[in-house]
Amino acid sequence: MSEHNDDAEKEKKSNEEAANSSSEQEEVEHSDMEKIRKYLAQMLRLSDSSNYDEQSQQRVLRELSIDGVVDYIKENENCKIITMAGAGISTSAGIPDFRSPSSGLYHNLEKYNLPHPQAIFELDFFMENPEPFFTLARELLPEGFKPTPCHYFIRLLWEKGLLLRHYTQNIDTLERMAGLPPEKLVEAHGTFHTGRCLKCRAPYTLSWMKEKIMEGVVPKCEECNEGVVKPDIVFFGEMLPERFHFLADRDFAQADLLIIMGSSLVVQPFASLVDRVRSNCPRLLINKEKVGMQDRLSRLLGLRHGLIFDTRSSHGGRDVAWLGDCDTGCQLLAEKLGWGDELKELVKKEHERLSAETNAETSKD
After folding, report:
1. Mean pLDDT lowest for which of 123-132, 135-144, 208-217?
2. 121 and 90 co-located in one domain
3. Residue 20: inside a domain, yes or no?
4. Would you place residue 315 in the very low, low, confident or very high pLDDT band (cuts 50, 70, 90)?
5. Is residue 15 part of a domain?
6. Is position 281 annotated in a ligand binding site?
7. Is 150 annotated as a binding residue?
8. Which segments does the entry list as coiled coil (predicted)?
9. C-alpha distances in angstroms, 251 versus 5, 180, 184, 258, 278?
10. Distance of CA 307 to CAs 5, 64, 234, 244, Å?
11. Catalytic residue list contains 166
12. Which of 185, 202, 319, 365 is most open to solvent, judged by the fewest CB atoms within 10 Å of its CB?
């Protein structure tokens, strides 16, 4: 009996030692993982403060819905809002989304035997054969296009003193046409608003380039008579404008709310901007589908990377997705903020003004 008790005692002690060893091992692994997380967060600039974990585990919005975002804006009188936009805010204006397989833009360029569709936005290919780009440009130029309710919603944010900055991937200049001041606008991928000769760097205006492009000719420099005039849009392989990097470093750390509209959030470095706001800054996505979501590796490492719509996550509580077309989403948001009629009236008034200007120009011709 004594021997049996001794054996039981030994087994119990052995189990306790194994449990303690396992617990110690888990603590070491957890500590190592935390070190890795902190190192990567620091190197990748995905964490902005030592109290990130504490902040991110708190629900920032009372309700994870567009109503929760509206309440948040109303409660923060001087709310600094950054808006980010992609092609989805311009499609209702008639400007096709060239990334969509149903748009037909790339299909219309088949006769130029492009090595691949993106070649049309590659500088080396453009230098050899600029004609395909300018064929595409005729469809992308804001000729007769009018800004959408989404564009005017962004303008309303500015008029009400809430817009910190608008970051756009679009090159269509519709934000400018909507009346957004240049200082509030960051055209991350450049713009058709200006252009330069690739040979002598002589500057050219949109109106000059538009006239040539709509005539179906490749714009040639009138200064050196040699170079092709390229709009100031960013081609693949080119650096983004210095203004983008300078302002992004400053703006996103100040933002109280981030609104992302009509973007697939796949093109870098634009897509990574969503991670540069503070960890307690709410983020609203207005889009036809959920995009830019946190991947498994980032989730495993505990990195603040990507949008988190899973409310069960300990890092949830600030990201909201409203799915549908951008104009409807912006109109809904405006109505809930008490600006619905104001937005409709602004769109109506501005579209009438633009139509009158177009008719006047046509009469002159």
Report:
1. 135-144
2. no
3. no
4. very low
5. no
6. no
7. no
8. none
9. 70, 17, 11, 11, 11
10. 58, 13, 26, 22
11. no
12. 365
